[in-house]
Design brief:
Structural class of chain A: mainly beta
Number of strands of chain A: 11
Largest interface: A-B, 26 and 28 residues
Order of helices and strands of chain B: EEEEEEEEEEE
Radius of gyration of chain B: 14 Å
Oligomer: heterodimer
Chain lengths: 112, 116
Amino acid sequence: AQSVTQLGSHVSVSEGALVLLRCNYSSSVPPYLFWYVQYPNQGLQLLLKYTTGATLVKGINGFEAEFKKSETSFHLTKPSAHMSDAAEYFCAVSDNNNDMRFGAGTRLTVKP
Amino acid sequence: EAGVAQSPRYKIIEKRQSVAFWCNPISGHATLYWYQQILGQGPKLLIQFQNNGVVDDSQLPKDRFSAERLKGVDSTLKIQPAKLEDSAVYLCASSQPPRGRNTEAFFGQGTRLTVV
């Protein structure tokens, strides 16, 4: 079955700094990849997704991610962090049967 | 468009008691998921339905957990008897992938279960 590894359970950046959250996946079939964000006491909200086509995917709130097959990675970036970006971020992988598996999550803290 | 509805939002029970959660997916969504999210961890898939059939329940502790999706719409997840380690947020999600493709899941706000 497919799986996801998120490197770093906690990332802290200063406001205005680059955000980089790492995600590596394992899949026996071409993967579908997702990043979700979770604010306290809320459900998961989709940030962006990769299915086919362009490997650089742009999402909401200025986030983007690049699918690199050779590195089995799908890292999430944002050029300039904002205080409102503080949340838990989850990378997920899905196969042809829509069997969606999540990583352990990375908590992003943004310092003023 | 209404989102995924879950109830209750919070539940506190004693160990060995039983509990049930309810989920109403987005209208027309054929795929429904139940996830368990323990504090500090990512969501773990418990069961996936396609219409009213089970696609994957390999991680469902079947000795105490059960789920059903009668008529392929609403779903209930039951725990009987509950253990302390079942304390978690139970998330319901739904999706409607176009034919031959994949798409994202839409999540409800979850039910926070505390077993004491």
